[in-house]
């Protein structure tokens, strides 16, 4: 059985940067908090938790800093960013903030703010429950989030719309949404491309590979939006696509009698998960099972 790994897969620069920052702080400090899981990958979150990183869901769960000398608690802002309201609360609590927001997410936040200041009704194409989108909403007042064409009823008629997108959406989906928005009544449309090229590279390389193999594995957290997007895209072109978190979830029956197997991984999937999976898969293939 031949195992082929997608040319572009695994950690993106934004995630790598956040992990590096976390590892560095954890060597020096004891009370380090992450506002929300640092990345959408259980294995990585558990590894950093063992190194001392405490994950909290909201600012209220972090004990306040002190008035004397250095703040006693450090809070890491993950690559998805945080809303201005959350940052203000962290400052109020006198916590030491380390910002690991990905620069592309920061750009999206800034563009949303500028569109709002310029009198546009800001529309984000994305998932309203995703932390990146929730944070962006905080930067631009009364934002409308649309995930698919069914959500377009939320758009006001005859207004100035300023459109941006969640960084990890696919160009294919954005194109479809823009076409549908363009058919509605509006006075002005301003679209700024806020898609992440790293996420697109992973999508293109996954789609190319999945068309060439009998079975396709997409590795990564089940909550990871970019990994889910990869799995959705691959499924479209290869029905034998499986989204797994790691090797423990491998089911040998799906590769039985198959000749070629492809592997890709989301931008938040650590190298070691990919390596372990590929090596085990190769060994399994060599047994002729
Ligand atoms: S996928 Fe792109 S936007 Fe998201 S963290 Fe990685 S580099 Fe940044």
What's the topology here?
Elements: E1 2-5, H1 13-28, E2 32-35, H2 42-50, E3 53-56, E4 74-77, H3 84-92, E5 96-99, H4 103-117, E6 121-125, H5 131-137, E7 144-146, E8 160-165, H6 171-182, E9 188-191, H7 197-210, E10 215-219, H8 225-237, E11 241-244, E12 260-265, H9 271-286
Parallel strand pairs: 1-12, 2-3, 2-4, 4-5, 6-7, 6-8, 8-9, 10-11, 10-12
Bound molecules: iron/sulfur cluster.
Describe this structure in words.
By secondary structure, the protein is an alpha/beta fold. It folds into three domains: 2-10 and 198-286, Cobalt-precorrin-4 Transmethylase, domain 1, CATH 3.40.1010; 13-102, Rossmann fold (3-Layer(aba) Sandwich); 104-197, 3-Layer(aba) Sandwich (Cobalt-precorrin-4 Transmethylase, domain 1). 38% of the residues lie in helices and 18% in strands. It is built from nine helices and twelve strands. The strands form three sheets. The protein has a four-stranded parallel beta sheet, with helices on both faces. Helix 3 links the parallel strand 4 and strand 5 (96-99). Helix 4 (103-117) runs parallel beside helix 5 (131-137) and helix 7 packs parallel to helix 8. The longest helix has 16 residues, at 13-28. It is flat. The N and C termini lie close together (9 Å). The mean pLDDT is 94. The site of iron/sulfur cluster (SF4) has 15 residues, from helix 1, helix 4 and helix 7. Iron/sulfur cluster binds at residues 12-15, 79, 102, 104-105, 167-168, 196, 198-199, 226, 267.
